[in-house]
């Protein structure tokens, strides 16, 4: 029997019906047996009417809204990794709530929804501002959204570490909770999503024409830029409505459209319809499971995290059914007036100058700025290992990002998308749960073990498809969602180990030894040499599988080798920075915006850029708030994201 979307929806519907019946059977029986005008106050009856039923309805509504927004995002942006949170909608809401909680709690008196929607609107507007000169091209829009979301997420995480007590409510909201006390939130959200859906309906026929490509759509008289802008705005608005009401439940918006395609939906209308149905059923199943097995604790257990825990294995099981896709080749960046080849030495010279400044300039014991005259030995013992380790780790992640983006032909690809960093996070989380404090060395060893274990799992899943890049990325996303969900549960329930985990996740090189720094530098040098040796594969694979095979490339061997190189580079950086691997996303794009074309120059410049960002971030982390030591990884995000925004805007003006 053919495994189509109808059969998948039927199976999920049967499961959902069974769970819902199990949840409401006893209270429904009591409700039917109790007269509507019973004397006294019936608490169970009130809970059933105003808590249980609204919660189940809210689950189905939110699942449908997020899945529909995800399907639109993936179709319009032509990227299977796009999701309702791609444009920073969730990150904007989170940082707005964080800032209001810490700096202006009076704003929350006007309503949490208003603050969250305002934050989402600001970040989405910033993304549109960055890509308006690029005519809302899919790649530029996705990159701008990722960078804005990265900056907002880092800012919110930094506030969470500094003001942990005040941020508990934001953590709980960030994990997604469907708990209800009345029908009012459901009705309000249903009205908002209904209006957004009505605005989307007239566009569906025009959106379907985008399957012909931008040129084909323009040939039929469509305004592609306007259509893409309006569609993205509507999908972002739908996401903002859901996020402001129940918090972050983003995984369903990614996995439901993927499942609809895996099950055989091809046209936009079919993908959208089946995605909405599957999303509603998935979130309903998840929340009914939580209510059934968690009992009274279900009010505090974040549904968003549980959705990822249950949805990740489902996505992993169905990945093998997916036919490998052929995304468009990576576009060649436009050239500027000065020769691109001359920029690589400039980047490397800047890296060397930054090392000197970070080594010599700093704060003394009293907090005054000083140069280490007469105290070089004492200063070098503390500063030199940090500089070498952070620079080498940044170079490792940058090279990993270049390899992954060219291998997969996907500008969203980075070490964290591969899932290796999530495996490390998952391993450290489980070790803290089972064994408590394990020390810095224990955390590093556990992280490496977890990263390698996930790498083996992903490679095993991809062996059947000859290590198709889209299979690898989806498997990595599934593992990442699982790890993030467990961390979200710990944070939301107030587990004291969550703060230790958040500190490790933020990436800090304080206390790194000279031996560890030298080993990381050696790993970076070997990775750089390997990437340069394998650059022929990296130049050919972006042309597509057919062209690569025609040029004599053994696709399975090339893909496996490059995946191992990227993953091992990420693993080598983990003992220094933890799971902070976004430099692998930022550094290659910064280099590409500089106009570099030759792959050898791209690899060298990306390694230098990644190292420079991490060295500069570590210098700021230990000086800007002295004697408080800020997490290097978060400072790197706050430093690298705005730099890339400026470069993207400059590149758009120079186009």
Overall shape: it is globular
User: What strand line-up does the widest sheet have?
Assistant: 1-2
Low-confidence stretches: 325-341
Counting DSSP E segments of at least 2 residues, the number of strands comes to 2
Give me the oligomer status. single chain
Tally of alpha and pi helices: 27
Roughly how many Å is the radius of gyration? 25 Å
- Spatial separation of the terminal alpha carbons: 52 Å
What portion of residues is helical?
over 70%
Classify the beta-strand content into a percent band. under 5%
Q: What is the mean predicted local confidence, pLDDT?
A: 78
Order of helices and strands: HHHHHHHHHHHHHHEEHHHHHHHHHHHHH
Task: Describe the main β-sheet briefly.
Answer: 2 strands, antiparallel
The structural class is mainly alpha
């Amino acid at each position: 029997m053919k495994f189509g979307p109808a059969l998948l929806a039927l199976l999920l519907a049967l499961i959902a019906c069974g769970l819902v019946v199990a949840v409401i059977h006893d209270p429904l029986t009591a409700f039917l047996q109790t007269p509507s005008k019973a004397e006294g106050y019936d608490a169970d009856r009130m809970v059933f009417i105003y808590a249980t039923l609204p919660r189940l309805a809210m689950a189905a509504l939110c699942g449908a809204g997020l899945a529909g927004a995800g399907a639109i995002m993936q179709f319009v942006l032509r990227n299977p990794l796009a999701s309702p949170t791609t444009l920073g909608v969730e990150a904007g809401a989170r940082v707005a709530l964080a800032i209001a909680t810490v700096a202006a709690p009076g704003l929350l008196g006007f309503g949490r929804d208003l603050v969250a929607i305002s934050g989402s609107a600001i970040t989405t507007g910033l993304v549109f501002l960055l890509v308006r000169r690029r005519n809302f091209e899919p790649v530029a829009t996705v990159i701008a959204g990722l960078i804005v979301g990265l900056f907002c997420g880092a800012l919110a995480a930094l506030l969470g570490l500094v003001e942990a007590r005040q941020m508990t409510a934001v953590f709980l909201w960030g994990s997604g909770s469907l708990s209800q006390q009345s029908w009012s939130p459901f009705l309000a959200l249903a009205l908002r999503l209904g209006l957004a859906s009505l605005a989307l309906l007239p566009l569906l026929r025009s959106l379907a024409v985008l399957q012909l490509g931008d040129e084909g759509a323009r040939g039929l008289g469509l305004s592609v830029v306007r259509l893409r802008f309006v569609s993205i705005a509507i999908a972002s608005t739908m996401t903002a409505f859901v996020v402001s009401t129940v918090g972050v439940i983003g995984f369903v918006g990614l996995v439901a459209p993927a499942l609809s395609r895996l099950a055989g939906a091809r046209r936009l209308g079919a993908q959208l319809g089946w995605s909405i149905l599957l999303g509603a059923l998935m979130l309903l199943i998840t929340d009914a499971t939580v209510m059934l097995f968690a009992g009274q604790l279900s009010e505090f257990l974040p549904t968003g995290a549980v959705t990822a825990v249950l949805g990740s294995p489902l996505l992993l099981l169905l990945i093998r059914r997916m036919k490998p896709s052929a995304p468009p080749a990576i576009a060649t960046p436009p050239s500027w007036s000065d020769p691109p080849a001359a920029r690589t030495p400039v980047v490397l010279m800047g890296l060397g100058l930054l090392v000197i400044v970070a080594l010599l300039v700093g704060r003394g014991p009293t907090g005054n700025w000083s140069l280490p005259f007469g105290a070089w030995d004492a200063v070098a013992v503390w500063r030199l290992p940090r500089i070498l380790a952070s620079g080498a780790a940044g170079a490792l992640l940058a090279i990993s990002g270049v390899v992954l983006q060219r291998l997969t032909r996907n500008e969203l690809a980075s070490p964290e998308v591969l899932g290796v960093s999530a495996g490390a996070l998952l391993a450290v989380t489980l070790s803290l749960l089972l064994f408590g404090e394990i020390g810095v060395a224990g955390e590093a060893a556990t992280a490496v073990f977890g990263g390698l274990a996930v790498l083996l799992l992903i490679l095993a899943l991809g062996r059947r498809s000859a290590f198709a890049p889209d299979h690898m990325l989806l498997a990595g996303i599934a593992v990442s969602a699982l790890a993030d969900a467990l961390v979200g549960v710990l944070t939301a329930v107030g587990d004291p180990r969550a703060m230790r985990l958040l500190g490790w996740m933020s990436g800090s090189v304080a206390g790194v030894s000279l031996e560890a720094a030298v080993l990381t530098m050696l790993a970076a040098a070997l990775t750089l040499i390997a990437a340069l040796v394998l650059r022929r594969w990296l130049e050919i694979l972006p042309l597509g599988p057919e062209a690569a095979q025609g040029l004599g490339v053994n696709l399975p061997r090339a893909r496996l080798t490059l995946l191992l190189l990227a993953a091992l580079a990420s693993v080598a950086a983990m003992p220094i920075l933890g799971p902070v691997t976004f430099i692998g996303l930022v550094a290659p794009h910064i280099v590409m915006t500089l106009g570099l074309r030759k792959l050898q120059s791209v690899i060298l410049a990306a390694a230098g850029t990644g190292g420079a960002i991490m060295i500069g971030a570590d210098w700021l982390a230990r000086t800007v708030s002295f004697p408080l030591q800020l997490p290097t990884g978060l400072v790197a995000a706050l430093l690298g994201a705005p730099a890339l925004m400026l470069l993207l805007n400059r590149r758009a003006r120079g186009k």
